[in-house]
Amino acid sequence: MRPADRVDRVPPSGIRRFFELAEEQEDIISLGVGEPDFSAPWAARDAAITSLERGQTSYTANRGRRDLRDAISADVEERYDLSYDPAEEILVTTGASEAIDLAFRALVDPGDTVAVAQPGFVSYVPKTIFVGAEPLRVPTRPEDDFALTRAVLSEHGAEEADVLIYCYPNNPTGATMTGDQLAEVAAFAREHDLTVFADEIYAELTYEHEHTSIATLPGMRERTVVINGFSKAYAMTGLRLGYALAPPAATAAMNRIHQYTMMSAPTTAQYAALEALESCRPDVRDMREEYDRRRKLVLSRFEEMGLPCFRARGAFYAFPACPGDDAEAFAEALLEAEGVAVVPGTAFGAGGEGHLRVSYATGMEDLKEALDRIERFLDRGWSGP
User: Fold this and answer.
1) How many whole angstroms separate alpha carbon 288 and alpha carbon 373?
2) Strand ranges of the sheet holding 195-199, from the earlier edge strand across to the other edge
3) How does pLDDT run across 100-113, given as a tens digit for each residue?
4) What angle do CA 304, 310, 313 make, to 5 degrees?
5) Is the pLDDT of residue 379 over 70?
6) How far apart are CA 63 and CA 32, in angstroms?
């Protein structure tokens, strides 16, 4: 047997390579993992345990439990003043990753062009290729604080695209976009009739300003699939629960694929998510405040080291420039010399060269030690491979 051509076109993940290198060494501090170091809030875990004790282990409705969809609808309306019908416009999925996959498979045709804002989450280009569409890479720039701009979209021919996908707050850069900045992108999408896939999985981990969903802007709700979930803000990565918000025809198309592939999202996780929405907002606030403390430490230490790094305002990543032109070589040398694992920006696509993704989703003591090791490595001088 041989892989399908579309699979052969997709290289292995650059992130996984550095995880595998790190596993070969001892005394490693990983700043490469995009996963909260917190456990899910106890109330959510207790709800999951209780559901199991009660034997609530059957399938749910394909679209997800109705009480959970009601709770998602209420949460979105409270936070963004956006109204989504739980019956027709909300789909509960097996993680936000499934929601992204369903959006591509349900709404992108072979031969379509997908404009992919980069650096960005590693799965967007592979998913584009898997559905037979063509990726159009749109690199964001450090001088724009890695925000997606109308100028960058135009410069790279995004007016010819059918779909635009982006993630803000951004993985890997930690960049955010204000409402005014998103208004430019929204205007571009309306003028050129682009469907937008807005990955907002880090929405609640926004610092210094409030998160704006592009679906709140004029003329955008009807052309946007909003993707979110419980993995990052609620520290529920392993429970695999996400959701998509979209107009009825889009969610119906996504659900048609979902019911033949996943049937329904994990039942136990749905009970945990319902409790999380009802009672765990204080836990999310506390985790966000702790991430913010770490963010400020990382940014200040990089400044002291003379390592240029724009001011990340979201998620739990910093994206410093690295000395020299070869981020992969720098990351390998840092791992070998000091036992600190970071991910080269090249793993996240165009615009990532010369940068490193540094995750501060790790304990403060390990974070301080890792920063001390990075400073020691820099003090010895790095001139490239």
Assistant:
1) 26
2) 90-93, 242-245, 224-229, 195-199, 163-167, 113-118, 134-139
3) 999 999 999 999 99
4) 110
5) yes
6) 34
